[in-house]
Specification:
The protein is mostly helical and 468 residues long. It has 34 helices and 2 strands. Strand 1 and strand 2 form a beta hairpin. Helix 13 packs parallel to helix 15.
């Protein structure tokens, strides 16, 4: 347990991590470390434990030489994990989702020729897959691989829409493809798709595809009339960037709340018109305005969106990483819980009073990140540490601002998670930390080994004593 805790110590130096690759412990956590030295990664790439290699294949920071080894792994699960390049979360006080960087060109080409269809299918989901490699995969002998390669093209070329639609036959796959087009869907292609849909029985997938067509097609008169006449698709067509200004103005007064919401979210809509449109929002909805996340906004534009009557703009704005102190302060006092939550999850300058407020009400996974936020108050952490709920105590146990007597109380807690977290608290004095390493309680000993203030000298002594 000591060495396993040490493998998770954020302060462990490269030489210790390299030596731990030979330890008789669960090394999968070590393999996932994003600061894993290249030499350690190379050693784990040939580990006999497939779970270790799977963990390594999920690591977004692998050197190309290790990627090449994993691309030739005997287990297709490992090759598939590497191929997919799945997104991961960062939890360093500010919650965030990240996409791994691209693999080497050689690795993409090897994986595209993999004999196992499941590996090639996984590769189709990779967001960095070079366009020319993806184009070759459209002719894959496995129809599902070809369909995924087409539907998951991050910026699917509209000029190849015929080829792409020929590969993606299912309604859901076609919906995903249309979602990623690099321009409006040509009207001719839309008419052909509609003819197919009209000749088959309607279901939830075909209805969703119809809505996606209404939202992205280059509207002509016939298509506009069709979608405007249908209550089911008026919201979708209201979001279509090619819809004429005349129809946009009409839909701004539509009796349907969802239609008005779609008009409000249009890129380039006159700000005065946008603010004049009444919309009710569900505070539990995860919907955001995609273009607002990447739009180049001036300080005045940020302030205007922060003061918008529309919750969806304020909520989306709270996800951006470039907000000024004034904008964050405005959003921190927003009436919407969702907006305030996003401020706590994503803003490095979220105020301590708000972090305290949200942590008291929010019990999902990002709560743990908020306790690690640099602005989270020590007194609030201490109150949580004294809670009668084990989850609260566990969340607070590692906060560096806890009083020494509170930490000691947590080290004697009945709950294993609480004791283990308390042993990782960086406020534990050095001499007490050495005592905890020798504890008969393996949970406490492992937590002490993972404590980031543990001296490097002690870490090296631990791997020496283990004969590594």
């Amino acid at each position: 347990m000591l060495l396993r805790g040490l493998a998770g110590n954020p302060s462990a130096p490269a030489d210790v991590l390299i030596r731990l690759t030979a330890a008789n412990i669960d090394r999968s956590g070590l393999a996932r470390r994003r600061d894993l030295p290249a030499e350690a990664a190379a050693a784990l790439a040939t580990d006999s434990d497939v779970d270790v290699r799977l963990g390594l294949a999920s690591n977004p920071n692998l050197p190309p030489t290790v990627q090449v080894v994993l691309a030739d792994d005997a287990d297709p699960q490992v090759r598939g994990r590497l191929a997919e390049g799945a997104e991961y979360f960062t939890t360093s006080g500010v919650h965030g989702r990240r996409i791994p960087g691209p693999l080497s060109r050689e690795v993409y080409e090897v994986l595209a020729r993999d004999p196992e269809p499941k590996v090639r299918r996984a590769l189709g989901f990779n967001r960095h897959l070079p366009d020319d490699v993806r184009a070759v995969m459209l002719n894959d002998s496995d129809p599902r691989t070809a369909a995924i390669a087409a539907a998951e093209w991050p910026s699917a070329p509209t000029n190849r829409i015929g080829d792409l639609l020929a590969r993606v036959t299912g309604a859901f796959g076609r919906q995903m493809l249309l979602l990623r087009l690099d321009g409006p869907l040509p009207a001719e292609a839309a008419h052909a798709m509609l003819a197919d849909l009209d000749s088959a029985a309607a279901n939830e997938y075909s209805m969703a595809l119809l809505g996606q067509i209404a939202e992205v097609v280059d509207l002509d008169a016939g298509l506009t009339d069709r979608f405007m006449a249908s209550p089911d698709f008026r919201a979708a067509v209201a979001a279509n960037p090619t819809l004429s200004a005349e129809y946009v103005a009409d839909l701004a007064h539509d009796p349907d709340n969802q239609v008005r919401a779609a008009v409000v979210a249009r890129r380039g809509l006159d700000p005065a018109l946008r603010e004049s449109i009444p919309v009710d929002y569900n505070d539990r909805s995860s919907e955001t305005v995609g273009w607002l996340l990447t739009e180049n906004l001036s300080e005045q534009e940020q302030l205007a969106f922060a003061r918008s009557r529309h919750q969806i703009f304020r909520k989306t704005l709270a996800l951006r990483a470039d907000l000024s102190e004034e904008v964050v302060e405005i959003l921190a006092r927003d009436e919407s819980f969702a907006v305030r939550l996003f401020v706590c999850e994503r803003q490095s300058n979220a105020p301590g009073w708000l972090l305290t407020q949200i942590v008291e009400q929010w019990t999902s996974y990002s709560r743990w990140d908020m306790l690690r936020h640099k602005n989270f108050p020590a007194d609030a952490a201490t109150r949580l540490a004294c809670s009668d709920k084990p989850h609260d105590r566990a969340v607070a146990a590692a906060h560096p601002g806890l009083p020494a007597d509170t930490v000691e109380t947590l080290l004697a807690d009945d709950d294993d998670t609480v004791r283990g977290r308390a042993a990782t608290n960086p406020a534990v004095p050095a001499d007490r930390l050495i005592e905890l390493l020798g504890s008969a309680d393996s949970v406490i000993a492992a937590g002490a080994a993972a404590n980031r203030v543990l001296s490097v000298v002690t870490m090296r002594q631990m791997v020496d004593q283990a004969g590594l």
